[in-house]
Structures are given as structure tokens and as C-alpha cells.
Specification:
Two copies of one chain form a homodimer. The first copy, chain A, has 21 helices and six strands. Chain A is mainly alpha-helical. Chain A folds into three domains: about 120 residues, MgtE N-terminal fold, CATH 1.25.60; about 100 residues, CBS-domain; about 170 residues, SLC41 divalent cation transporters, integral membrane domain (Tetracycline Repressor, domain 2, Orthogonal Bundle), CATH 1.10.357. In chain A, a hairpin with a 5-residue loop joins strand 2 and strand 3.
Amino acid sequence: MGTDVLRRLSDHEDLDGVRRWLDENPPHVIADELARMDAVSAMVPFRLLPKDRALAVFEELEPVDQQQLLMGLRDQAFGDLVEAMDPDDRARMLHEAPAKVARRVLAGLSPDEQRMTAALLGYPEGSVGRVMTPEAVTLPRHLTAGQALEVVRERGAGAETVYTLPVVDGERRLVGVTGLRELFLAPAGRPVAELTDTGVARVRATESAEDAARLMRETNLLGLPVVDSEDRLVGLLTIDDAVEVIEAADTEDAARQSGADPWPGHYMFASVWQLARSRAVWLLLLIVAATLTVNVLQIFEATLEEVTALALFIPLLVGTGGNAGAQAATATVRALAVGEVRGSDLLRVVWRECRVGLLLGAMLAAVGMVVGTVLVGGDIALVVAVSLVIICSWAATVGGVMPLLAKRLRIDPAVVSAPMVTTLVDASGLIIYFLTARAVLGV
Amino acid sequence: MGTDVLRRLSDHEDLDGVRRWLDENPPHVIADELARMDAVSAMVPFRLLPKDRALAVFEELEPVDQQQLLMGLRDQAFGDLVEAMDPDDRARMLHEAPAKVARRVLAGLSPDEQRMTAALLGYPEGSVGRVMTPEAVTLPRHLTAGQALEVVRERGAGAETVYTLPVVDGERRLVGVTGLRELFLAPAGRPVAELTDTGVARVRATESAEDAARLMRETNLLGLPVVDSEDRLVGLLTIDDAVEVIEAADTEDAARQSGADPWPGHYMFASVWQLARSRAVWLLLLIVAATLTVNVLQIFEATLEEVTALALFIPLLVGTGGNAGAQAATATVRALAVGEVRGSDLLRVVWRECRVGLLLGAMLAAVGMVVGTVLVGGDIALVVAVSLVIICSWAATVGGVMPLLAKRLRIDPAVVSAPMVTTLVDASGLIIYFLTARAVLGV
């Protein structure tokens, strides 16, 4: 994959080169290159794409990028593109768009598409309703396989998928699902009811999209039926959308775990201001929390003045405690995300992490003893070694427990992970260190 | 979902209760509960499952858990289960199994299944070949839609999927793909060649499974054709396997980013020893690296003895530098993983992160100035504020660049992320702090 070829061709106004490059590359590669260009220069190659290719490329873009491209288009091209989008993709883009864009988009839609989009936008943010497709091909339960195949033949062309076919009763309540494969491989006279998996998982439209997507991963479904509070079918979560939901959730978790909000859109395209803003609040909170370490050290200032050598090991101890805490926090955040740990496991996690921390602390204490003895002498080395054992098991316990406590308090566990734990452990680690020093050195 | 109901029922030897619970719950929930029990107690409920349900549950388990369950089964049940597994799932389990288990499994297979499994195991670890399904239904390019549907009807029942149908030429070379939907909705006489997407993405069996899975996410495919070096079709990567590959890769990245190896199997089931082992190496490496901070402080020991108050801000500065570095490192690791940043973006990332760090540093300096003045006085407050600006922009730059350098050196970028960066930034941050102190205070 040539790096930035498209940008270079555009910059040199080599339109033939741009056309050739667009012909030779698949939509997702073109979308990737467009996302790396600024909105104005991305318009040039985008306008050169034939209509159907333009749609394919457009669908691969992130909502932020879609919206910026749209604003550069004239009414006709704008309307065509917006009308052709899948309703769920359109809803996702509209949600992030400024009101001005949203109004222009909605005004340009056919009444049918307008209705579907408005319905999706009515669901809460982060819910399945927002990302599902409302265009499922549903089958009445009383059909035969042959009749059902006729329904698919009639209505399949317009639907996002025909591989998951919800089966419903007379009140549009979900009975189960079948699929094109099951219908196609069965004798034509076989009742659809016999080919229907009635035990299939289902979710409410208002439930969390991330939970629904992880459920799909666990159950290996290509489409998960979405129902309303009366069990009536309202849509399908398709696997490609579920994969995007999982990836977005993992990106968000990764950002949160480093003490930052997820940055908006493409990393290379986000402005320096946007990147700084996504990190500023956390960094501020953390530095305010870190002033606690200054207070702690002030309390022990007399000890510190008496034995300055104690200061030498502050970064090492604070750093190691932070690392041990971060390891434990990351492990439980991830285990919670993929469903291996539940809120009710709190006490068991405390007990596990405390022992893991003790083991690790004992191992590190040996290193600390050697390093300390070589660099400053046996007394302080002993203080460092003993502190390491206590700090490690304390840090691992705090790190393991905080995400579970957050989960119980209905806060995103990723929020209270690595940096939060580290900062907490820093101050308490210093207290442990100086109390140990006082006890061992008798100062 | 009741918590640990199954375990409690088993512990009380309430077999009727266990049977009822097994009847009422879907396979993925049963698998989840079994994974939370130890191997011996999990055997009891597993043996109570009817044969087809047992297979469904077995397929939902992680390879480690599968292998432990298998070892508790008698030959007949063992053979049935192993023969019925999908070849790619079997290969994955065998790869992690001890040689004794692997031999017993391979010996019990039919020659056909044995051949397929051996072929998959011949591909390198982490490659697409290991996780693809070799059982695709391929269509010769010269068929009509109607003839192709006949092929699917004949061979579809045994295949993992019929929704992605690779089209091949006389030498089994991949021409493109079509799907059951396209064939089914087309007139029977239409040539398959006209229904084939010849521009479809394809990967070599030896390429990275993670890259292939991310490509599937980008292209929204349900099945990605896998070819050998001569472009002959050897299998299909199906979307459900791709989702698992992505989730496993993200779990691994999350662990690596906190300075730990991924723990083996289920978090609650891994032993305390296993958890400690997955973190020990990194923690040791990091503490050895952290002794650098002791050396740095020794160099400035005279300054520290003269102005003990300088010691008060060491954890705050070191912590903030670490946080700023971790934020940048996590952002670029993730951006690399999802393909938003490439190795060639190195200089642009340096320039972005350096400015982001400066902005953040300036903001934090204001806080540092206030806190410092209140707690210790203006002079040291000025030292802290100036140090914060320099440390933040340095930390963000190092954090942003290290993962890209790692990528260029073909090391997993996640390995050199948060804790590694933090430890590096700790020592250099102290140098910045004390040099600033000397300059400002004139000591």
C-alpha cells in the first residue's frame, strides 16, 4: 500500500494520476487515504469517483469524516449520497453532526428514510437501537420454507442482510430466527416453524450496544434480533456493525485506561487542540490528586532531612507500586469487559490480587535488597525491600478492586484504571515507605 | 443470569437441579459457568449434557478449558467430540495442548479430519492459516447461478459457511467470491462469473491473522478468502473467527500496555502463580530500569541535601510525566493497531505530540505554580512549573514515538508502551527537574 500516494498526486494536481490510483484501489484503502487528508483536499479525489464507488468509499469513512465530506458537496450529490446510506450509518453520522448539517440531511431524505432515521435517533446514545438496522426481512411463522424463500426473493434485494431472518407471530412478536441457509437446504414443504431457532439470544433496543456486540461474539451469530419492551421485532444488529461497536469500545477503554478521553475521529486528522483537550481534564485531575503526595512528604519532611538517602528511592518505589497497580487494574478491567469477572467476584478478586502482589513483592524485594545494599547500604536496603513487599500487595489489591467497585457504582471500570490507581497508590506507598523507615531505622 | 448457580448446585450434588439449569440456559452461558469451575467439578455437569448440546457448549470454551475437559472423558465421548469439532477450532486447541493430549486427539480422528488438522497446524503461529476454515464450498467459474445453487445444496450441509462462496478457475486459483444471496436472487441462467466480485480482498495463509481480521472489519466481509503463494484457494477466514482474533489481540495489547504478558485462559480460573508469572518478568525489568532514577538522584544528592523541599515534588513530577507519556503511548499504540498511523508517520507524530505536550504542560504549570506557592513558596514553585512544561512535552513526544520505533524494528508496539515509557521518562524527568532547579535557584 503506497503511503500517501493520493495526497501527493492531489497536491501536484495530477488528476489523471488520481483517477488511475482511484481505479486501482479498493474502497477501504481509498477511504483510509481520504481520512488522512484535510476536508478541502479530500474533496478533489472524492468528486472524481463514479457514483457507486463514491458510496462504497463513503460508507467506509468514520462519521466525522463523512460529515466533513458531505458539507463540501453540492445539493444533488449530497442528497444522493445521504439517501443511499444505510439508516444505521446515517443515524450514527447525524448524531455527531452539528445541528446545521443534521437539518440539511434530514430535509433531503425521502419520507420513508426520514422516518427510519428519526426512529433510530430516538434511542439513547450507546444503545443497540442506535446501531441496529431496521430493515430486516421478517417471516410470518406459518409459512413453509418454499413460501419463505419467495418472500426473501421479493424483498431481499433492499435489505441489509438475508442471512438472519427473524420469524414473528401475528403481533410482530419475535418467535425466533432462521436463515437463508436453513430455508434453502430444507425441502420446500417444510414449515418455517421447524427451521426456526426459538432459543436464540435477543436484546432490547434500549440495552447497551457494547453488551449486545459481546453477546454476538459469544454466540457466533451473524445477526442478533432487537426487540422492544413487548418483544416485538424492531431491527437486527448485524455482525459487521457489532465488530465496529467492539472495536470502538476497545479504543475507548484503551484511552480511558491511560487517563484520557477517546480522541475524536482519526488520530492523524484530529487537531493538536483536540488531542490536548481529550487528555487535559484527566491530567489536571491527576495532578491535583498528586498534590496529596506533596502533603504526605511534608509530614515526613523531618525524617527526610535526617536521612536524605531515603529520597533516592522515592521514584523507584512509587513507580513500582504504580506498575503493580496498573497491571492488576488492566487485568480486571479487561476481564470485566470480556465477561470473565463479574461485580459479585469482588472478594475473590481481592484475595487473588493480594496474594499475586505478595508473590511479586517478595521477588522484587530481593532485587531491591541487592540494589539498595550496593548503592547506599544495608539499612536503607532493608527499608526498601520491606516497603516493596507491602506496596506491591497493596497496589495489586487496590488495582484489582477499583474497577469492580466502579462497576458496582455503575461507573465505566476503564475510568478508574491505571493512572487513577497509580496516583492513589503513590500517596499511600509513600506513607508505607516512611512508616517502614521509621520502624526499621528508628528515626 | 444467576451467579455461580451451577457451581453451587454441583457442590451440593443436586443433579436434578443441575439438569434443570442446563436445560434452561443457552450454550454460551453454560460454557461461561464451566470455565469458572475447576476441571474436575466441571466434568459432572458436562457429562449430563445431551450429545449435541455438549458439542455446542464445548465449542464455546477457550482452548485451555476444552483441553482440560477432554482429558476427563472416556475414549468414546472423547473421540466423538474431537471428530465433530471444526478443523480450525481443533487446530487451535491442539496447538496449546501438551504433546500427550495432542497425540491422543490425532490418533482418534478419521483420516480426512486428520489431514485437515495437520495442514492447519503446518502454518506458523499467529497466521491466518491457523484460524481459517479449510472447508469452503468452492464454485468453478463457468457455472450458471442455477448450477451453483445445486452445488451448494449438495455440499452446503457439511460446510462451515455458504454465505461466502469462493469462485475458482481450473487450477483452483481464486477468481473472486460470490454468496448464497447473490446466487439466490439472480435468474437461474445467469453466469456465476457475472455475480462474482473479482476485486475482493484476499490474504496469504502465512500472513498475520490479526491483520487479516482487521482487514475484514474494514471491508465488512463475512468471509475472507485465504490463498497460497500461487493464489490457489486454501480456506476461508469467517467473521466469527475474525472477531475472536481481534478480541484476543486487544486483550493481549491491553495486558502488554500495562506491562504484563497476557494471562493464560480465563482470569478467574488462572492460578495465582500463573497471574504472578505473567507479570513478573516485566515488573523485574521495570524495577531494574528504575534503578536509573536512584543513580540520577545520587548525582543530584548535594542539591537535594541543600534544598530538601525539592524532594517533596519528586512523586508529583514523575507521576505527571508518566501520565502524559502513557496517554501519548496508548494513543499511538491504538492508532497503529487500528491502522490510523503507520511507521512512516514518525516525524509527523513527533511534531504533533511535542505540541500537544507543550499545551498540556503549560496548563499544568499554572496548577503547579499555585500549589507550589501555597505549599512551599515562589522559588520552588517556579522550578516545578518550568519543569512541568519541559517534562510534559518531552514525555508526550517519547510516548508517541516509542511505539512507532518499535513497529519499525518489528517489535509489537504494545510492548514498549505505558510502563516502559513511564520508566524512561521518570529518569529523564528528574534530570530536567534538577537542572531547572540549579538554573532557577542558583544552587
